[in-house]
Amino acid sequence: MKQKDLWEKRVFVILIGLVFMGFAFWILNRRTEAPTDIGIDRPVVVTTLFPLYDMARFVGGDDADVSLLLPPGIEPHSFEPTPADIVRIGEADVFVYTGDAMEPWAKDVLSGTGRRDLLAVDASEGIAMRVGSDGDEHGHEGEEGMDQEDDADADLEEEEGHHHDHGGLDPHIWLDFDNAAVMVRHVAAALSEADPSHAAAYADRAEKYVSGLSDLDRAYRDGLAVCKSRTIVYGGHYAFGYLAARYGLSYEAAQGFSPDAEPTAKDLARLVGQVRRERLSAVFAEELSSPKIAETIAAETGATVFELDAAHNLTRDEAEHSVSFFDIMRRNLDTLRQGLSCE
Amino acid sequence: MGFADFLGFAFIQRAYLAGSFIAVLCAMLGLFLVLRRFSLIGDGLSHVSFGGIALGLFLGLEPLWVALPISVAASSLILVLSRRARLYGDAAIAIVSSSGIALGVVLASLAGGFNVDLMSYLFGNILAVSPVETYLSVLLSAVVLAVIAFLYHDLFSVAFDEEYATVSGIRTGAVNILLATLTAVSVVLAVKVVGVMLVSALLVLPAVSALQVARGFRGALLLSSCIAVLSVLVGITVSFLADIPAGGTVVLVNLLVFFVLLAWKRIR
Fold it and tell me: What's the domain count of chain B?
């Protein structure tokens, strides 16, 4: 009797196991089927970061189906793709990412999809990235200005060099508009490859975007030519290195290339010292994140907090109003001109 | 830059001040929580407040005012689950805290994203405490100290032997709700001021260290508070001298104190 009970149990367990295995196989098979044929013939483009999305959206126009992986409001440095995101990448025709420094997970995801026909675009290809190695990465191109008043300040200057730089690469390449132009052309080339019938249209729109970028570049050059102050003190992670270097500004940030490392008391003291020494009237805060660090520096020095948006991602409101990269960068120019008291 | 310059910064003064008061607050509550096997409630409730903040944003209400009642409810739920459903305290905390995260993640997805990065708003940094938050932490510590002073006997009895306390006429239900409410409010606000890592550590480490050597319960309360305040003061100072993050340093100083007291107890 007992023996029989035991047998029934075993059979039951094995049956349940088989059902689960069948279910698992079904799911796995379902995933690998039919990857591409979504929509009519339009290439499906998945992008990882807002600037890339904006470029692909513009270049693709009505001929491509472009989407952004990041949900609005999410800080991209801490972003990891969900299983559904990986499926989306696996089902796309073109996948555009900023590079290994910004999306370290991209390589694994790509090899995981097992698709050979997926066009993966490393938008940073051919772009010389700024390296965080020595004091230089702080963007002291501009004037060091303002006579050093005492030894304490000299000490601070010395200490600057070994912060922030973890020997890594600065992934915020899109904030140099020449780099942005290179990225747009990468996107256009990939779209043309995926959908040769519209190649001319893609190339055309890409050139329009590039000329928009050079207009923007001119506006920045003119707008930031004569300013009372040339120092951006930033209570966030080191995102504006490219922009500062391009327009001869000096740039000091509380954190490194990624916002995960907490700033230390010395980091804050260094920034406070800088604001006081150069009598700066503005401290800049990061988009999307809490402005607490910038507010602390501002409260200490009497400076005003302005938000400077590195365009990593949009807020939900901005996404609903389909704000463009150009909108954000023009707003930044206004903010900078106000904060740095430009002529 | 010398140490005197360092002390001249208002944000450093606020860090010392707000940090010390939150340290006392956490150390006192922590002792009751540790004795009742709710050491991880700090982590648990910070996860719940993540869900609460997401709910607030989703409904378009002021996030903190949604997060606070939800955390109080969750904190009571943890107590009720562990008593009525005969769950271990750690399992009850795990259930409630993962549900909080789940709620937050699902709501964030339903809302199609938010206008801010939730995490950065939820978690404070001891070096970026605002003047208002400093007053708030002083006020909160005063309230908790007053409650503990007035209801010392009841809290003490319930912490050590709940059944005996019930028999001897203490309204254990009310005491539990009170403790749950104080804990939830303190955790949510303290996490916003100094960050989740520091709050969880300050709830547990000073209490455990004090229990190694203290003779009576009063002694443990006092010692726990002293250890917490000392570790905040020493931690911030060391973090400046060594140029390392302040929150982490405070936790490590706490850990060091714990090991020293543990060793001392064994030698003695």
Answer: 1
DSSP letter string, A197-230: GGHHHHHHHHHHHHHHHHHHHHHHHHHTSSBS--
Distance (Å) of CA A202 to CA A127, A141, A185, A187, A207: 21, 37, 9, 9, 9
The Cα B151–Cα B129 span in angstroms is 31
- Tens of pLDDT, residue by residue over A132-148, are 643 333 433 333 333 33
Indicate the helix (H) or strand (E) that contains A152: helix A151-160
d(CA A227, CA A244): 13
How, if at all, do strands A94-97 and A119-122 pair?
parallel
Rg, Å, chain B Cα set? 19
Per the confidence metrics, is the pTM higher than 0.90?
Answer: no
ipTM for the complex?
A: 0.72
A319 in reach of chain B (CB within 8 A)? yes
Task: Using an 8 Å CB-CB cutoff, list chain B residues near A72.
Answer: 112-115
Mean pLDDT of B62-74: 88
Query: pLDDT digits over B123-142, tens only?
Result: 778 888 888 889 989 999 99
Q: Examine residue B268 and state whether it is found in any structural domain, yes or no.
A: no
Range of the domain at B61: 12-262
Q: What is the mean pLDDT of residues A181-190?
A: 95
Give me the total of CB pairs closer than 8 Å, taking one residue from chain A and one from chain B. 108
Closest CA to A176 of A242, A122, A127, A225: A242
Q: Which is nearest to A89 in space by CA: A116, A118, A64? A: A118
CATH of the domain at B126: 1.10.3470.10
Whether residue A321 lies within 8 A of chain B, CB to CB, comes out as no
Half-sphere exposure of A25 (CA within 13 A, CB side): 6
Mean model confidence pLDDT for chain B: 88
Residues recorded for chain B: 268
Q: Is residue B84 part of a domain?
A: yes
Type of residue at A96:
V
Contact flag A262-B119 (C-beta cutoff 8 Å): no
